[in-house]
């Protein structure tokens, strides 16, 4: 099912019993977070956390008439509903089919491809003259303080927009990008733009700086590259940053497939608007902005227009992050607001992160399923992967493979570290294809039985997630790979490998048939 906008999605959540409306007045400072955290971690019948319901707060302190939606993706069922599938593996299978299209050899093959070609037509976004996001337009009187932005945790540096779709355009290629980068609200007109240096938005920013530097006598392109590597603080202090700006638009409150697309690690040449079209099987409608040369989702609840200055950094953070710890304060670019457009009575969509499991856990598991067929393009020997929620997704990856030659597990580790956002994976554990990586108990049993630590653990250095507070340097540290596959004589293991204890099928069948006789029901 494709949802036209956030309101269509909310109505479906309501019909499905997945939405709780809260009419009591709540404070966006800390109180909404505490309520949502308790709901997302609630257990039913002694089982694991279920994720609770999506929450719609209808009376927000200090913001008369405002409505806040949170926890919309906070369960497996809602994640499936958001993407219109009965199982997340359905999307992986669709991706697999697209990736395995072969050239048609005859009329019958061409006829079989027609439905797929029709589906392709649904992927590309289309620009329309106007849309609901233009119902109200504010320029001189636009203020970020009008939004019911949350302060999530006690030691946060302030209020943060946590579910924005940040839209930029590559100054070099003209390609658009949609990323989800938190924004700390400083005042009515400015906010921090937390795009980590490995993100596409940050690369657009650096490309704008390179171009500004090339047009300026004061800063060389080489100096800009040094700044990009160092984080920019020292060069900013010297006053050598080139003047200029990068235009930015921010959409808040879109249909669920589009919101989710902003966090999907798409291939470099694929726009997130196309990813959303693929997921929802319906083109994303875009409209031109009022004050910047960008296109935004026509059905968004709220759109912020503005720019990021190339010659300005400001302290952003601390912020209570998905690691369960506060990410530390650092210097980031500053977003300057030029216009706000929104729907009548806009709904502010947001999320919170913290100690798992929370809403982002279910979003991360969806990414895991969708990313699997893309991983197999480069590493076809991969059978399955699991990014445990407790591993914060970038700290631990469990991988099963069809092992074919000595050192195969190590080849897979290095291949994963070369795959886009997977480069941040701190620990990779590789097991044989008969191990169910979704069963943590089985992985623990097999992996710890199969390894000789000195022989089977390897370390390497490389880029790490900016939120990794344990790395030796910001954005740079070590990673660990564990080869927990069975060892072969060609890998130097000349002892017999023992058989796993398994009951024979005849006895299992006998006991199953006689089970009631034993009186053990």
Describe the protein in words.
- This protein is an alpha+beta fold.
- Helices cover 29% and strands 22% of the residues.
- It has 15 helices and 23 strands.
- The strands form six sheets. Strands 5, 7, 8, 10, 11, 14 and 17 form a seven-stranded antiparallel β-sheet that branches. A five-stranded mixed β-sheet has the order 19-20-21-23-22, sandwiched between helices.
- Helix 6 packs antiparallel against helix 7.
- It holds the Pfam family UbiD_N.
- One of its GO terms (biological process) is ubiquinone biosynthetic process.
Sequence-ordered SSE layout with sheet pairings:
Blueprint: H1 6-15, E1 19-22, H2 31-40, E2 54-57, E3 67-70, H3 76-83, H4 88-99, H5 107-120, E4 126-127, E5 136-138, E6 160-161, E7 165-169, E8 176-179, E9 183-184, E10 190-192, H6 200-214, H7 221-230, H8 233-237, E11 245-252, H9 256-261, H10 272-280, E12 285-288, E13 295-297, E14 302-316, E15 319-320, E16 326-327, E17 330-342, E18 347-349, H11 359-378, E19 382-386, E20 396-401, H12 408-416, E21 427-432, H13 440-450, H14 453-456, E22 457-463, E23 476-483, H15 505-514
Parallel strand pairs: 1-2, 3-18, 4-12, 20-21, 21-23
Antiparallel strand pairs: 2-3, 5-17, 6-9, 7-8, 7-11, 10-17, 11-14, 12-13, 14-17, 15-16, 19-20, 22-23
Helix pairs in contact: 4-11, 6-7
């Amino acid at each position: 099912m494709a949802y036209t906008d956030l309101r269509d999605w909310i109505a479906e959540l309501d019909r499905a019993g997945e939405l709780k409306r809260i009419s009591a007045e709540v404070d966006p400072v800390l109180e909404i977070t505490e309520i949502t955290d308790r709901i997302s971690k609630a257990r039913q019948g002694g089982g694991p956390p279920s994720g609770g319901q999506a929450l719609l707060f209808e009376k927000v302190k200090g913001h008369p008439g405002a409505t806040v939606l949170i926890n919309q993706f906070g369960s497996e069922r809602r994640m499936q509903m958001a993407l219109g599938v009965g199982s997340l593996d359905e999307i992986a299978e669709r991706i697999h089919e697209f990736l395995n299209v072969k050239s048609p050899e005859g009329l019958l093959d061409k006829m079989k491809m027609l439905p797929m070609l029709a589906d392709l037509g649904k992927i590309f976004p289309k620009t329309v003259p106007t849309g609901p996001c233009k119902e109200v337009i504010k320029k001189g009187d636009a203020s970020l303080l009008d939004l019911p932005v949350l302060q999530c945790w006690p030691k946060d540096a302030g209020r943060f927009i946590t579910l924005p779709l940040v839209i930029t355009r590559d100054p070099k290629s003209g390609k658009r990008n949609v990323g989800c980068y938190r924004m700390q609200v400083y005042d009515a007109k400015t906010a921090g733009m937390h795009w980590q240096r490995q993100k596409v938005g940050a690369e657009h920013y650096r490309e704008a700086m390179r171009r500004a530097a090339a047009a300026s006598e004061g800063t060389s392109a080489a100096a800009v590259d040094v700044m990009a590597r160092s984080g920019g603080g020292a060069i900013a202090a010297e006053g050598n940053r080139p003047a200029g700006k990068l235009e930015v638009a921010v959409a808040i409150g879109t249909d669920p497939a589009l919101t989710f697309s902003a966090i999907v690690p798409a291939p470099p040449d694929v726009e997130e608007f196309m990813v959303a079209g693929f997921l929802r099987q319906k083109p994303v409608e875009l409209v031109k902005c009022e004050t910047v040369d960008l296109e935004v989702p026509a059905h968004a609840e709220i759109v912020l227009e503005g720019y990021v200055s190339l010659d300005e950094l400001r302290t952003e953070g601390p912020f209570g992050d998905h690691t369960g710890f506060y990410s530390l304060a650092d210097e980031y670019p500053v977003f300057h607001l030029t216009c706000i457009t929104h729907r009548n009575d806009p709904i502010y969509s947001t999320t919170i992160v913290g100690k798992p499991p929370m809403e982002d856990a279910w979003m991360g598991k969806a990414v895991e399923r969708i990313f699997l067929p893309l991983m197999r393009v480069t590493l076809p020997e991969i059978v399955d992967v699991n990014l445990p929620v407790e591993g914060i997704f970038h700290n631990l990856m469990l991988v099963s493979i069809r092992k074919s030659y000595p050192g195969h597990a190590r080849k897979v580790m290095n291949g994963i570290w070369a795959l886009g956002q997977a480069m941040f994976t701190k620990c990779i554990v590789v097991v044989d294809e008969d191990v169910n990586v979704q069963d943590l108990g089985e992985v623990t049993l097999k992996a710890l039985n199969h390894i000789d630590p000195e022989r089977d653990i390897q370390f390497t250095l490389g880029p790490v997630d900016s939120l990794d507070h344990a790395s030796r340097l910001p954005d740079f540290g070590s990673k660990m790979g564990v080869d927990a596959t069975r060892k072969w004589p060609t890998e130097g293991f000349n002892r017999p490998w023992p058989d796993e204890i398994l009951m024979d099928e005849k006895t299992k069948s006998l006991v199953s048939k006689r089970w009631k006789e034993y009186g053990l029901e």
